Amino acid sequence: MDAADVRDDLSEVLYTSDQIAERIAEVAAQIDEDYAGREVLLVGVLNGAVMVVADLQRAMKNHVQMDWMAVSSYGSGTQSSGVVRILKDLSSDLDGRHVIVVEDIIDTGLTLSYLMSNLASRNPASLEIMTMFRKPEASRMEVDVKYVGYDIPNKFVVGFGLDYDGRYRNLRDLAILSPHVYS
Ligand code: XMP
Ligand code: MG
Protein backbone atom coordinates (compact mmCIF):
# COMPACT_ATOMS: atom_id res chain seq x y z
CA MET A 1 0.00 0.00 0.00
CA ASP A 2 2.08 2.90 -1.27
CA ALA A 3 1.03 6.47 -1.93
CA ALA A 4 -2.65 5.52 -1.92
CA ASP A 5 -5.37 7.90 -0.85
CA VAL A 6 -6.15 7.19 2.81
CA ARG A 7 -9.86 7.43 2.01
CA ASP A 8 -9.73 4.28 -0.13
CA ASP A 9 -9.30 2.23 3.04
CA LEU A 10 -12.46 3.35 4.84
CA SER A 11 -15.70 1.41 5.05
CA GLU A 12 -17.86 4.05 6.76
CA VAL A 13 -17.52 7.62 7.95
CA LEU A 14 -19.00 7.91 11.44
CA TYR A 15 -18.43 11.63 11.98
CA THR A 16 -17.43 14.22 9.41
CA SER A 17 -14.90 16.93 10.18
CA ASP A 18 -17.79 19.43 10.31
CA GLN A 19 -19.64 17.35 12.90
CA ILE A 20 -16.45 16.98 14.93
CA ALA A 21 -15.81 20.73 14.80
CA GLU A 22 -19.40 21.44 15.84
CA ARG A 23 -19.16 19.14 18.86
CA ILE A 24 -15.76 20.53 19.86
CA ALA A 25 -17.23 24.05 19.81
CA GLU A 26 -19.97 22.91 22.21
CA VAL A 27 -17.51 21.25 24.58
CA ALA A 28 -15.21 24.31 24.44
CA ALA A 29 -18.11 26.60 25.36
CA GLN A 30 -18.98 24.30 28.27
CA ILE A 31 -15.38 24.32 29.52
CA ASP A 32 -15.22 28.14 29.21
CA GLU A 33 -18.36 28.34 31.36
CA ASP A 34 -17.32 25.72 33.92
CA TYR A 35 -13.87 27.26 34.40
CA ALA A 36 -14.76 30.96 34.20
CA GLY A 37 -12.05 32.90 36.03
CA ARG A 38 -9.77 29.85 36.33
CA GLU A 39 -7.10 29.09 33.77
CA VAL A 40 -7.15 25.54 32.43
CA LEU A 41 -4.12 23.41 31.57
CA LEU A 42 -4.97 20.91 28.84
CA VAL A 43 -2.81 17.79 29.16
CA GLY A 44 -2.83 15.97 25.84
CA VAL A 45 -1.92 12.31 25.63
CA LEU A 46 0.37 11.82 22.63
CA ASN A 47 0.03 11.07 19.80
CA GLY A 48 -3.68 10.61 19.32
CA ALA A 49 -4.88 13.72 21.17
CA VAL A 50 -2.87 16.16 19.05
CA MET A 51 -5.82 17.16 16.84
CA VAL A 52 -8.28 17.34 19.75
CA VAL A 53 -6.03 19.60 21.84
CA ALA A 54 -5.30 21.85 18.85
CA ASP A 55 -8.96 22.29 17.92
CA LEU A 56 -10.35 22.40 21.46
CA GLN A 57 -8.14 25.22 22.65
CA ARG A 58 -8.73 27.27 19.50
CA ALA A 59 -12.49 26.92 20.08
CA MET A 60 -12.11 28.24 23.64
CA LYS A 61 -12.36 31.91 24.56
CA ASN A 62 -10.80 31.69 28.05
CA HIS A 63 -7.05 31.73 28.57
CA VAL A 64 -5.76 28.18 28.29
CA GLN A 65 -2.39 26.41 28.33
CA MET A 66 -1.29 23.03 27.04
CA ASP A 67 1.22 20.34 27.90
CA TRP A 68 1.85 16.80 26.71
CA MET A 69 2.49 13.29 27.99
CA ALA A 70 3.39 10.13 26.16
CA VAL A 71 2.64 6.77 27.75
CA SER A 72 2.90 3.16 26.72
CA SER A 73 1.48 -0.05 28.12
CA TYR A 74 3.95 -2.47 29.63
CA GLY A 75 4.50 -5.78 27.89
CA SER A 76 3.86 -6.91 24.37
CA GLY A 77 0.49 -8.60 24.81
CA THR A 78 -2.59 -7.46 22.98
CA GLN A 79 -4.47 -6.85 26.22
CA SER A 80 -3.71 -3.74 28.20
CA SER A 81 -2.46 -4.56 31.68
CA GLY A 82 -3.38 -1.15 33.03
CA VAL A 83 0.23 -0.59 34.01
CA VAL A 84 1.76 2.09 31.87
CA ARG A 85 5.21 3.49 31.38
CA ILE A 86 5.71 7.23 31.03
CA LEU A 87 7.70 7.83 27.84
CA LYS A 88 7.47 11.60 28.01
CA ASP A 89 6.48 13.46 31.13
CA LEU A 90 4.93 16.93 31.48
CA SER A 91 7.05 20.08 31.41
CA SER A 92 4.62 21.81 33.79
CA ASP A 93 4.21 21.62 37.53
CA LEU A 94 0.58 20.66 38.27
CA ASP A 95 0.55 22.06 41.80
CA GLY A 96 -2.55 24.27 42.14
CA ARG A 97 -3.44 24.02 38.44
CA HIS A 98 -6.82 23.25 36.90
CA VAL A 99 -6.01 20.26 34.73
CA ILE A 100 -8.08 18.62 32.01
CA VAL A 101 -6.57 15.46 30.54
CA VAL A 102 -7.44 15.26 26.85
CA GLU A 103 -7.76 11.88 25.11
CA ASP A 104 -8.62 10.92 21.55
CA ILE A 105 -10.56 7.82 22.56
CA ILE A 106 -11.36 5.79 25.66
CA ASP A 107 -11.87 2.08 25.16
CA THR A 108 -11.37 0.10 28.39
CA GLY A 109 -10.04 3.12 30.23
CA LEU A 110 -7.20 1.15 31.79
CA THR A 111 -4.50 3.48 30.51
CA LEU A 112 -6.40 6.49 31.71
CA SER A 113 -7.04 5.05 35.19
CA TYR A 114 -3.33 4.73 35.77
CA LEU A 115 -2.64 8.17 34.36
CA MET A 116 -5.27 9.81 36.55
CA SER A 117 -3.90 8.42 39.79
CA ASN A 118 -0.41 9.44 38.73
CA LEU A 119 -1.51 13.01 37.94
CA ALA A 120 -3.70 13.27 41.06
CA SER A 121 -0.61 12.68 43.20
CA ARG A 122 0.93 15.89 41.80
CA ASN A 123 -1.52 18.04 43.73
CA PRO A 124 -3.56 19.81 41.01
CA ALA A 125 -6.36 22.16 42.17
CA SER A 126 -8.72 20.12 40.00
CA LEU A 127 -8.41 17.21 37.60
CA GLU A 128 -10.94 16.22 34.93
CA ILE A 129 -11.04 14.27 31.66
CA MET A 130 -12.13 15.23 28.17
CA THR A 131 -12.26 12.57 25.45
CA MET A 132 -13.25 13.12 21.84
CA PHE A 133 -14.63 9.58 21.40
CA ARG A 134 -15.73 6.89 23.83
CA LYS A 135 -16.47 3.22 23.26
CA PRO A 136 -19.20 1.27 25.14
CA GLU A 137 -16.70 -0.67 27.29
CA ALA A 138 -15.64 2.61 28.93
CA SER A 139 -18.92 2.72 30.88
CA ARG A 140 -17.41 0.08 33.19
CA MET A 141 -14.43 2.17 34.22
CA GLU A 142 -14.48 3.74 37.61
CA VAL A 143 -13.02 7.15 36.72
CA ASP A 144 -15.48 9.87 35.76
CA VAL A 145 -15.22 11.42 32.31
CA LYS A 146 -16.52 14.98 32.50
CA TYR A 147 -16.50 15.88 28.79
CA VAL A 148 -17.28 13.48 25.94
CA GLY A 149 -17.35 14.38 22.26
CA TYR A 150 -19.20 11.40 20.85
CA ASP A 151 -20.08 7.92 22.08
CA ILE A 152 -19.29 5.50 19.26
CA PRO A 153 -19.93 1.80 18.53
CA ASN A 154 -17.37 -0.84 19.42
CA LYS A 155 -15.56 -0.73 16.06
CA PHE A 156 -11.95 0.04 15.28
CA VAL A 157 -11.89 3.62 14.07
CA VAL A 158 -9.29 5.89 12.52
CA GLY A 159 -8.91 9.56 11.67
CA PHE A 160 -8.83 12.82 13.59
CA GLY A 161 -5.61 11.72 15.28
CA LEU A 162 -6.48 8.03 15.61
CA ASP A 163 -4.21 5.59 13.83
CA TYR A 164 -3.89 2.09 12.53
CA ASP A 165 -0.20 1.17 12.53
CA GLY A 166 0.75 4.84 12.60
CA ARG A 167 -1.38 5.78 9.62
CA TYR A 168 -4.70 7.59 9.04
CA ARG A 169 -4.18 10.22 11.76
CA ASN A 170 -4.31 12.90 9.07
CA LEU A 171 -7.82 12.00 7.98
CA ARG A 172 -10.19 14.81 9.03
CA ASP A 173 -13.23 12.56 9.55
CA LEU A 174 -13.67 9.70 12.00
CA ALA A 175 -14.16 6.48 10.06
CA ILE A 176 -14.32 2.72 10.36
CA LEU A 177 -11.37 1.05 8.69
CA SER A 178 -12.20 -1.32 5.84
CA PRO A 179 -11.38 -5.01 6.58
CA HIS A 180 -9.13 -5.29 3.51
CA VAL A 181 -6.53 -3.19 5.38
CA TYR A 182 -6.03 -5.89 8.04
CA SER A 183 -5.36 -8.70 5.57
P1 XMP B 1 -7.86 1.87 26.78
O1 XMP B 1 -8.44 0.51 26.51
O2 XMP B 1 -6.78 1.84 27.83
O3 XMP B 1 -7.14 2.21 25.42
O4 XMP B 1 -8.95 2.89 27.05
C1 XMP B 1 -7.20 3.43 24.85
C2 XMP B 1 -6.20 3.47 23.73
O5 XMP B 1 -6.40 2.39 22.81
C3 XMP B 1 -6.31 2.85 21.50
N1 XMP B 1 -7.59 2.60 20.82
C4 XMP B 1 -7.84 2.88 19.53
N2 XMP B 1 -7.06 3.44 18.60
N3 XMP B 1 -8.83 3.23 17.03
C5 XMP B 1 -7.57 3.62 17.33
O6 XMP B 1 -6.90 4.17 16.47
C6 XMP B 1 -9.67 2.65 17.90
O7 XMP B 1 -10.80 2.31 17.57
C7 XMP B 1 -9.13 2.47 19.24
N4 XMP B 1 -9.67 1.95 20.36
C8 XMP B 1 -8.68 2.03 21.32
C9 XMP B 1 -5.99 4.30 21.59
O8 XMP B 1 -4.58 4.45 21.43
C10 XMP B 1 -6.38 4.75 22.95
O9 XMP B 1 -5.61 5.79 23.48
MG1 MG C 1 -3.20 4.35 18.81
From TrEMBL:
GO cellular component: cytosol
InterPro entries: HGPRT, Hxn_phspho_trans, PRTase-like, PRTase_dom
Full protein name: Hypoxanthine phosphoribosyltransferase
Catalytic activity entry: IMP + diphosphate = hypoxanthine + 5-phospho-alpha-D-ribose 1-diphosphate; GMP + diphosphate = guanine + 5-phospho-alpha-D-ribose 1-diphosphate
Cofactor: Mg(2+)
Molecular function terms, GO-annotated: guanine phosphoribosyltransferase activity; hypoxanthine phosphoribosyltransferase activity; magnesium ion binding; nucleotide binding
Biological processes per GO annotation: GMP salvage; guanine salvage; hypoxanthine metabolic process; IMP salvage; purine ribonucleoside salvage
Residue span(s) of domain Phosphoribosyltransferase: 16-164
Top EC class, one word: transferase
Annotated Gene3D superfamilies: 3.40.50.2020
Keywords, alphabetical: Cytoplasm, Glycosyltransferase, Magnesium, Metal-binding, Nucleotide-binding, Purine salvage, Transferase
A Pfam family per the record: Pribosyltran
Family the UniProt entry places it in: Belongs to the purine/pyrimidine phosphoribosyltransferase family.
Pathway assigned to this chain's UniProt record: Purine metabolism; IMP biosynthesis via salvage pathway; IMP from hypoxanthine: step 1/1; Purine metabolism; GMP biosynthesis via salvage pathway; GMP from guanine: step 1/1
Enzyme Commission code(s) on record: 2.4.2.8
Intracellular or extracellular location(s): Cytoplasm
Organism: Tessaracoccus rhinocerotis
